[in-house]
Design goal:
The complex is a heterodimer. Chain A is mainly α. Chain A contains 25 helices and 6 strands. In chain A, α6 (171-202) packs across α7, α14 (299-320) runs antiparallel to α15 and α22 crosses α23. Chain A is globular. Chain B is an all-alpha fold. Chain B has a single domain (6-95), classed as Helix Hairpins (Orthogonal Bundle). Chain B has helices spanning 6-26, 30-54, 61-91. The chains are: A mainly alpha, B mainly alpha.
Chain lengths: 646, 104
């Protein structure tokens, strides 16, 4: 049964946790805050599962097609007839799926943090921020209005900022959180302009109406948007591209990805939740939400999505092969996988069956990626917890000390490398198939990337768990973490191993109809073989300590160094901002402000002071002097009125 | 004996007024200054009465105003003397130059 109250409670429970822990946490719930937040989130997870079950199996379908249901809609700000900011809930296959993903991963992270963050000074604050993030992310996926999604979009940005900067006494964390906020904010300006363009032409902010208006070629909205053009590109395409820029900023697509690797300064469970599984896929979600408009009305914008996604995927995979900080490897891997999801959407077309495969594949990969990437991050967190370092060289030979982490990490690596029958295999096959059918360039890029993915993931795996035989930390000085840390790992490992068997095409498709996914054995051979080759190469290089990696690095010195320095993108940004923008815009503006604006203000101040200095002698305190002024002025006024103003 | 006319009275009131002003400006003793103010007020009273008697003999407005001014002057004197007494208590002096610091 469809009940809006239950659905509204899913985001509102974490919000309640945020308010309660944020206001009273430090005083009254010093030690219990984690449990309170976890229980609230457990309730919201159960409600999300109940809602998703109800949607997919009970009331979601009408005539065999999944509907876009709007169980709750409250008009909040009405600008003019039809154009209003609503607070509403939309329930369709992707939002129901995202509800499950967000609440489940968030719950795992909440449980994991109980042990990982134990003893932190700002423990309640941490849980308050997690609650705020979960609330905003759930609000984002449920938004029925494009402006509502923008509000929640900014809210997830804020909570990401707060959590990256959680260790605010660490200068690098402060720099990282500022960077993340500024870069995503910069992209969000594009999003906002995109919203204004789209809503201006479609005359609405409501998603369903907007999509309906902009996809039917007969409607006036479509005609005017397609006819108006700027720099030779139609306004509709511009709007969609601008919206995509917002999505690219949040999803760390090239060239707006620079904030994601730095965001790893936050606590590791936060990286698992925000910078791997949920927030960074918001951009993919946004494109998926507007997919009909992209696909039907503006194939050019969709092509851009495909190429940006594919470029980011390859670019990040190359960098990931050279990084030594394990969290940064995972960050680049995240960027690469999100690139996968993006181009999967980009290669999809509007039409029946196979053509829309990319959409389903993208959402499928989002789902499986959330499982195995959260698992990888939480596993990395356990490793960091154990060795107190992020650097690969401080690790090695950990498989004996951390058996559960080892196995679950291996499962996640196999899943991301696309080895059957783990989850990543199925979703990646679908993406490759979709790319193969529509765009061969993208297909080849994706294929190379998948080989690289397998290589760098197993480089990571062997470096952490094999490589050296004796770990410098000696015989386990403490265990690998308690039940609270291992339980999420095991649950996520089950998800990463088994999520691939869900027949996703039956539930999540672009138009709600059923899509049978076919399995082509011949097609799968090449990617799987490439993946295995990557694994074997990584094994040869990193299983035992040896000279080979260094030799290869020296023989490829130029390329290696460029990749190690992340292709100098950060330096380019620094050059543009500090040398060009600061010198050409910042300095003159500062000069103008200091000399002209401040000068005017100082001038009035100084004049007043000067004049008062002169006339302050008048107030002498001598009553008789005052009386003389009075008398003289009265006489003067009298003369004035009598002789001059008759 | 000559019946006094309007001009005589105006002369008296003007003389009174300037004596008061002179006293107010030159004396240092606050009580004397207060007395000078009373002189100024009384010169105004004489003015009112004179105009009332010689210009509008049938009316009483001037007389009323005079009574009004006398009442106000009484109240004003009471307040002024209270201030002077307080000043004396704190400064042991009723010299106007010792009251200068009241400006702060």
């Amino acid at each position: 049964m469809l009940n809006a109250t239950y659905i509204a409670l899913i985001p509102l429970l974490p919000l309640a946790g945020f308010v309660m822990l944020g206001l009273f946490g430090r005083k009254y719930f010093r030690n219990t805050s984690g449990v309170i937040a976890t229980v609230l989130l457990l309730a919201s997870t159960l409600l999300a599962l109940y809602t998703a079950y109800g949607y997919f199996f009970e009331y979601g379908k009408a005539g065999g097609v999944y509907q876009k249901l709007v169980p709750l809609k409250y008009t909040w700000l009405e600008f003019s007839k039809g154009v209003s900011i609503d607070m509403g809930i939309i329930l369709d296959p992707i939002s129901a799926m995202m509800l499950v993903v967000v609440t489940f991963v968030s719950l795992m992270v909440h449980i994991y943090s109980l042990a990982y963050m134990k003893g932190e000074e700002r423990f309640p604050t941490y849980y308050a921020f997690l609650g705020l993030f979960t609330f905003s992310m759930l609000g984002l996926v449920l938004s029925s209005n494009i402006f509502q999604i923008y509000i929640f979009w900014e809210l997830v940005g804020v909570s990401s900022f707060l959590l990256i900067g959680y260790y605010y006494d660490k200068p690098s964390a402060v720099a990282a959180c500022k960077k993340a906020f500024i870069v995503t904010r910069f992209a969000d300006v594009g999003f906002l302009i995109g919203i204004l363009v789209l809503s201006y032409y479609s005359n609405t902010l409501d998603f369903n109406t907007l999509i309906a208006n902009l996809t039917s070629p007969e409607s006036n909205a479509y005609k005017s948007a397609a006819a108006a053009s700027f720099l030779g590109v139609s306004a509709l395409t511009w709007g969609l591209v601008l919206v995509f820029i917002g999505g690219a900023g949040k999803s760390a697509m090239f060239p707006l990805h620079i904030w994601l690797p730095d965001a790893m300064e936050g606590p590791t469970p936060v990286s698992a939740l925000i910078h791997a599984a949920t927030m960074v896929v918001a951009g993919v979600f946004l494109v998926a939400r507007l997919f009909p408009v992209f696909a039907i009305s503006s194939p050019n914008a969709l092509n851009l999505v495909a190429y940006v996604g594919a470029a980011s995927a390859l670019f990040a995979a190359v960098i990931a092969c050279t990084q030594t900080d394990i969290k940064r490897v995972l960050a680049y891997s995240t960027m690469s996988q999100i690139g996968y999801m993006m181009f999967a959407l980009g290669v999809a077309h509007w039409g029946a069956g196979e053509k829309m495969l990319g959409y389903t594949a993208s959402m499928f990969h989002l789902f499986t990626h959330a499982m195995f990437k959260a698992l990888l991050f939480l596993g990395a967190g356990a490793v960091i917890h154990f060795v107190h370092s992020n650097e690969m060289k401080d690790m090695g030979g950990l498989r004996k000390f951390m058996p559960i982490t080892h196995i679950s990490f291996l499962v996640a690596c196999l899943a991301i490398a696309g080895v059957p029958p783990f989850a990543g295999f199925f979703s990646k096959e679908e993406i490759l198939l979709a790319a193969y059918h529509s765009n061969t360039t993208v297909y080849w890029i994706a294929l190379i990337t998948s080989g690289l993915t397998a290589f760098y993931m197993f480089r990571l795996y062997f470096s952490i768990f094999w490589n050296k035989e004796h770990h410098p930390h000696g015989e386990a000085h403490h265990g690998e973490g308690g039940f609270a840390m291992m339980m999420p790992l095991v649950l996520l490992a089950v998800g990463a191993a088994g999520a691939g068997f869900i027949p996703f095409g039956h539930y999540v498709t672009a138009d709600g109809t059923r899509l049978e996914s076919e399995f082509h054995l011949q097609f799968s051979i090449l990617p799987v073989a490439l993946g295995l080759a990557g694994i074997v190469l990584a094994m040869w290089l990193y299983k035992k300590q040896n000279e080979r990696p260094d030799k290869i690095a020296t023989s490829l010195s130029g390329l290696y160094k460029a990749a190690y320095r992340k292709f100098y993108i950060d330096e380019i940004y620094l050059f543009i901002t500090q040398k060009i923008i600061f010198n050409l815009v910042g300095r003159p503006a500062a000069w103008f402000d200091k000399n002209v604006v401040d000068g005017l203000v100082n001038l009035t101040g100084n004049t007043t002071q000067l004049v008062s200095e002169k006339i302050k002698g008048i107030q002498s305190g001598k009553v008789q002097q005052y009386a003389i002024y009075f008398l003289v002025s009265i006489v003067g006024l009298a003369l004035l009125f009598i002789y001059i103003w008759k | 004996m000559i019946e006094p006319g309007l001009y005589h009275l105006l002369f008296i009131s003007t003389a009174l007024f300037f004596i008061g002003v002179f006293g107010f400006f030159t004396r240092r003793n606050l009580v004397t200054m207060l007395m000078s103010i009373e002189l100024i007020l009384n010169s105004v009273n004489v003015n009112f009465i004179a105009f009332n008697k010689y210009v509008w003999p049938g009316k009483l407005d001037g007389v009323f105003f005079t009574i009004f001014i006398i009442a106000i002057a009484a109240a004003e004197a009471a307040v002024a003397i209270a201030i002077i007494i307080n000043l004396y208590r704190s400064h042991q002096s009723i010299d106007v130059e010792d009251a200068e610091e009241l400006k702060y």
